[in-house]
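Quick one:
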Amino acid sequence: FLDTAVKRYSSGMYVRLAFAVAAHLEPEILVVDEVLAVGDAEFQKKCLGKMKDVASSGRTILFVSHNMAAIQNLCSKAIYLNKGRLELMGEREQVISSYLRSTADVNSIDLADRKDRGGNGAFRFVSFSLKDEQGHQLSSLQSGKPGKLCIDIKKDSNHPVLRNIHIAMGIDDEMGQRITNLNNETTGILFPEMNSQNGTVEISIPRLPLRHGLYSFTLYGTVNNEVADWISNAGTFHVEHGDFFGTGKLLPDGQGNFYIDHTFKLV
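Output:
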């Protein structure tokens, strides 16, 4: 592509070129704005490696991103901006915690009142709750215990019957990294149609593998392969410590998000 006009480049190719030029000019201050949002995994890995090299050489990097894991991996200091105003500046962990708390406050808005949503409105997500096996309301889930993630939906009155319904919930960790996706099509449980005005989708987890912490989620639903409702960062839920293995031992902090059923054997 060396002889191709830059205007013919894709957005990913354009960002690759721009980053390469900026990084290899050896500037005193390198400003990188959401460069990891574009490009494949190999390019992102190269970017992080190059930025670490620049930082270790004594120069300054201003790294702008919503990717908390990348900020944690790359930065020593952080600045939290909210609508163009400085909220906090200081140590990385302190600033990340403040930012995550603020997003949790936003996510506490009732789903029915959320305006930042997509889809044609064939149905809407209206509320979310946690329940135990008997259907009793919970304030949080517990590692190793059964639980239900319950999503109330409301059908648009202009749609008498909804057919071929697909519901998905993407779950993110405290750093905003997607750690799993729960959806009915993957499990082979199909919803051919919905006639009633209101319904509840129950996602049952027989033995919760998530470790202690705060998790956020995105809700996504389609009807006949058309997006009906889509809410990013729809809400949060908390998972309490639990004795997953029945040994009284917990997963050490910083050692992953999941408990995995396994055994050891010395032969």
